[in-house]
Design brief:
The complex is a heterodimer of chains A (about 450) and B (about 450).
Chain A: E1 6-11, H1 35-39, H2 53-56, E2 68-84, E3 90-106, E4 116-125, E5 130-134, E6 142-143, E7 154-163, E8 168-178, E9 180-181, E10 184-188, E11 199-222, E12 225-232, E13 235-247, E14 250-263, E15 266-276, E16 279-288, E17 308-320, E18 323-332, E19 345-346, E20 350-360, E21 370-380, E22 383-386, E23 411-428
Parallel strand pairs in A: 1-14, 6-19, 9-13, 10-13
Antiparallel strand pairs in A: 2-3, 2-23, 3-4, 4-7, 7-8, 8-11, 10-11, 11-12, 12-15, 13-14, 15-16, 16-17, 17-18, 18-20, 20-21, 21-23, 22-23
Chain B: H1 30-33, H2 37-41, H3 55-58, E1 74-91, E2 106-116, H4 118-121, E3 126-135, E4 138-144, E5 151-152, E6 163-173, E7 176-203, E8 210-239, E9 242-249, E10 252-265, E11 269-282, E12 285-295, E13 298-307, E14 327-337, E15 342-351, E16 364-365, E17 369-380, E18 391-407, H5 417-422, E19 429-445
Parallel strand pairs in B: 5-16, 7-10
Antiparallel strand pairs in B: 1-2, 1-19, 2-3, 3-6, 6-7, 7-8, 8-9, 9-12, 10-11, 12-13, 13-14, 14-15, 15-17, 17-18, 18-19
Classes of the chains: A mainly beta (about 450), B mainly beta (about 450).
Chain lengths: ~450, ~450
């Protein structure tokens, strides 16, 4: 390939990938939660332990007495719209579904580690194990919190240690946060024909693993009261690499450097109160450090996002021995400031309403498993933006005057709603006590 | 997209170019090493052996509770896996040659679970399993290179990819068990758009060549799709101590496809290319196996697997008629319960080479493989007898000899003299080596 006339293309903006944290798409998002937790609007970090405690608050695992596994699946619809002033609404609807599996268990045996609890959770979306759109422009309207991040595979592994005869649990977990390295080398094949040109590609893909920590404590100061405190570290995935392309007279030789912000640092406190055996009321409040948000192009948004405090609560009632009803409510103020400059993030305060039920199958003669069901509905207030035209760049310096092509100028409005339903099986496993039943005939 | 003397002559429409990929049948680690330390110690001859999470891959009927086993058993294993290739590729004059991608060492973690669901779901004889294989340094890593670059067919990428398996086994009768599992892998789609935003003519100060320095914005859409490959099996126990097995494993393949498009290139318009790689292939496979107890405390497992490699494809998604051929691979493993708490294992597996360049353009290195394995299992902390302990440790070592071969190019298999001249393997070469691997696992039971 001659270098004469070669065109050098500098890729200013490159690709990105998102992958996930634990068994939830994101704090407060009704996608991906384990059914019992989802029915309680994601509340319950104080415990007692649930199947998603390994991610929500691993300290709560200390209340676990026997191995439990859960399988669940969920599906729902995410619908959002965007309308620039004077133009019709652009509405998009998509299905979001997935399935998950979790296993939590006490340390086997009666040795000094008997107060240790272990857990692992895996969540995989139905359609895409990973789905990310990185538009070439910064001003493409996007649903800030739900668009790419609802679809990604998530793995969390954690454990807890029970202290003071089980009154306090200390837990820690790690969430696997992958990034992408993809150096690519493209060359024109001089041996190919002009009729059927061919290039030779050397492409490498690597998904290195980053770790996002979760540290939590759960305690039971009173018989009817559980409290919990958890810190979840932020998760950011990166896409890096190079693009060295020489095909004919074309040369692309530039680095790829992107970031996908999955979840901010979160510090949350929760309380669970059980005034009577058949009733549990719980509430959580969490501070999310959204001010460290970076866009998919690895830049701080202008203006930067705000930290926010979200609140969620749930109630659980055993109406009969084998049937439990649940309901939940969460309020999530938006971290996105008014979009008066280049970006067009669609987000506003959100309200999440959930309901669900748990049914013990033993009463039906179907074994010791429990069937969990839930439904969730999320509504967002209408977001409105009025552009500060003086703050927008001139998109065509060659043309006299200021040429503004921002996709949100001069003003826009947008919003979203989502619903989801799910079901799951909770499976008590292993034999208890051990080894007292050792001599029982197995079958 | 052929350059002209006056500069660049490029179609103004998108130029779709198929391109090349790499180490094709970069099979998952379990394809030859076996799933877990016990399976490795038995050379993977596990089709007719039940009672561990390894049955997910080797025969999911074995996930069903085994007669005599604890009811409501739950067992979980955490294992480490290491492998290191000692391979050599050299010219016919004895000079070492470099491959496009090095045959690298591997360190990985394997997590496996098997549970008796009979009580939980009220279905007698129902068991389930799940496994997750995680390379130690990355969730996944693979490289794609043109088929004519010198590269190992199976050694480079096969153990560098996250993979999960889930399955069910059911024993409706004491002498009959059936099972189904799925191997879960992931495809990747990348669609890339670069939009030119600025262009400025430049002259290379060193060469004096002129070029256009172009600035562009790039956007990308990435999708990862789950891909399931089925595993079905049946176990029949006609008499005490004899188990017969049949297994079908569906083709598993991981694809990497997409396109790249550069728009608004001055004087050119739009150009681009599409790509489609296949960087992991295990074709359909049928296996029959047997397990028997020839003497007290001795058990023997053997199997023969037919693999449909004649439908194999290279990473460039090409078929090479006559180059890929079906294989029939035998394996045998023997286990001796040296004591109530200790089991010793050994095995042998022969893997027929799947691809032969036959002097053609491809330079994909493959070899027959003779694998010898040894292993041991130790039960710990057994409250009610050694074989019912809460903890156990399994260890295995595997050494495989790759006798290799010699390649000499046949000019009649090339489209032109130029193609032969440009082929990296035109002068011929030979290759051989060893592959050492090991596994250590800890299993807990509840």
């Amino acid at each position: 390939m001659t270098r004469t006339g070669a065109i050098r293309v500098r890729l200013v903006v490159a690709a990105t990938v998102a992958w996930g944290s634990a068994a939830r798409a994101q704090t407060g998002v009704p996608f991906g939660d384990e059914p019992r937790s989802a029915a309680l609007a994601g509340s319950g970090l104080a415990g007692p332990a649930g199947l998603d405690s390994v991610d929500r608050n691993p300290g709560a695992l200390h209340t676990l007495e026997r191995p439990v596994a859960a399988l669940w699946a969920h599906g729902g619809s995410l619908r959002w719209w965007f309308a620039r002033r004077g133009e019709p609404r652009d509405t998009q609807t998509r299905f979001v579904g997935g399935f998950g599996v979790a296993l939590v268990a006490p340390w086997p045996g009666d040795g000094p580690l008997r107060t240790v609890r272990l857990g692992v959770g895996l969540h995989v979306p139905f359609e895409h194990a990973l789905s990310v759109d990185a538009p070439p422009r910064d001003d493409v309207p996007s649903l800030a919190l739900y668009e790419n991040r609802a679809e990604r595979m998530a793995v969390t592994v954690g454990g807890a240690l029970a202290l003071l005869d089980g009154a306090i649990g200390l837990g820690a977990a790690i969430r696997f946060v992958p990034s992408l390295r993809t150096p690519t080398r493209v060359r024109y094949d001089p041996g190919s024909s002009e009729r059927r040109p061919r290039v030779l590609i050397d492409l490498e893909r690597e998904l290195p693993v980053g770790l996002a920590p979760v540290v939590g404590v759960a305690a039971q100061p009173l018989r009817a009261l559980h409290v919990g405190l958890v810190y979840r570290g932020r998760a950011v995935m990166r896409a890096e690499g190079s693009n060295d392309t020489r095909a004919g007279g074309i040369r692309l030789d530039d680095p790829i450097d992107f970031a996908a912000f999955v979840e901010p640092d979160v510090l949350a406190f929760g309380v669970s109160w059980q005034p009577v055996a058949a009733l549990r009321v719980q509430a959580d409040a969490g501070w999310a450090r959204w001010s460290r948000f970076v866009t998919i192009h690895d830049r701080r948004p202008d203006p930067p996002w705000r930290d926010m405090i979200e609140a969620r609560a749930g109630v659980e009632i055993d109406i009969v021995r084998s049937i439990t009803l649940r309901a939940g409510l969460a309020y999530e103020p938006t971290p996105v400031p008014p979009q008066r400059r280049v970006s067009n993030f669609v987000d506003a305060d959100r309200l999440l309403v959930t309901a669900g039920a748990g049914i013990g199958l033993e009463a039906l003669g179907l074994g010791r498993a429990r069937l969990e069901l839930y439904g969730a509905w999320l509504a967002m207030a209408t977001a409105r933006a009025h552009k500060d035209l003086d703050a927008l760049p001139d998109d065509d310096a060659q043309t006299p005057g200021r040429q503004i092509r921002n996709l949100g100028a001069p003003a826009w409005s947008g919003s979203a709603t989502a619903w989801q339903a799910g079901l799951g099986l909770t499976l008590p496993l292993g034999r208890d006590p051990w080894p007292a039943d050792d001599d029982e005939a197995s079958r | 997209m052929r350059p002209s003397a006056s500069g660049v002559r490029v179609p103004s429409a998108v130029v779709a170019l198929c391109f090349a990929g790499s180490s094709l049948a970069a099979a998952q680690h379990e394809d030859r090493h076996g799933l877990g330390a016990r399976a490795m110690g038995l050379a993977g001859a596990m089709a007719a052996r039940a009672g561990s999470f390894a049955a997910l891959y080797h025969g999911p009927a074995g996930l069903a509770p085994v007669p005599g086993e604890r009811a409501a058993l739950l067992e979980a294993s955490v294992e480490t896996f290491v492998a290191h290739p000692f391979v050599r590729v050299e010219s016919l004059r004895g000079e070492p040659l470099r491959t496009a991608a090095p045959a690298r060492s591997t360190f990985a973690l394997l997590f496996g679970v098997r549970a008796d669901l009979s009580r939980a779901l009220g279905v007698r004889g129902l068991g389930a399993g799940f496994s997750l294989y995680q390379p130690g340094d990355a969730l996944a890593r693979w490289s794609n290179h043109p088929d004519d670059q010198l590269q190992w067919l199976h050694l480079t990428d096969r153990t560098h990819r996250i993979g999960a398996m889930a399955g069910l086994g059911w024993r409706p009768l004491r002498w009959l068990a059936v099972g189904a599992a799925a191997r879960i892998l992931f495809d990747i789609e990348t669609l890339t758009v670069a939009r030119v935003t600025d262009a400025e003519p430049q002259t290379d100060p060193t060469t004096g060549e002129s070029y256009v320095d172009v600035t562009a914005q790039l956007g990308e859409r990435v999708r990862a799709y789950g891909r399931l490959a089925p595993v079905l099996s049946v176990l029949v126990e006609p008499t005490e101590g004899l188990t017969l097995a049949a297994r079908y494993r569906g083709s598993s393949e991981v694809e990497d496809w997409g396109w790249t498009r550069v728009e608004q290139v001055p004087a050119i318009g739009t150009l681009g290319f599409v790509h489609r790689f296949s960087h992991h292939v295990e074709p359909d496979q049928l296996t029959v196996g047997v397990a028997l107890e020839p003497a007290p405390r001795w058990s023997l497992g053997a199997e023969v697997a037919w693999t449909d490699w004649s439908n194999g494809r290279s990473a460039e998604h090409r078929r090479y008629p006559g180059h890929f051929g079906d294989t029939i691979d035998p394996a045998v493993g023997i286990e001796w319960e040296a004591s109530a708490a200790v089991a010793m294992r050994a095995g042998y597996r022969f893997v027929r080479r799947t691809f032969d360049p036959f002097g053609g353009p491809a330079n994909l290195l493959d070899s027959d493989e003779h694998a010898l394995t040894v292993g041991a299992g130790v039960e710990l902390g057994a409250p009610g007898g050694a074989r019912s302990g809460r903890w156990s440790i399994d260890v295995a070592l595997r050494v495989a000899w790759l006798p290799g071969d010699t390649e000499r190019k046949d000019w009649r298999r090339f489209a032109s003299d130029e193609e032969l001249e440009l082929n990296p393997g035109r002068d011929g070469y030979r290759w051989s080596g060893w592959l050492a691997s090991g596994a250590l696992g800890v299993r807990a039971r509840w």
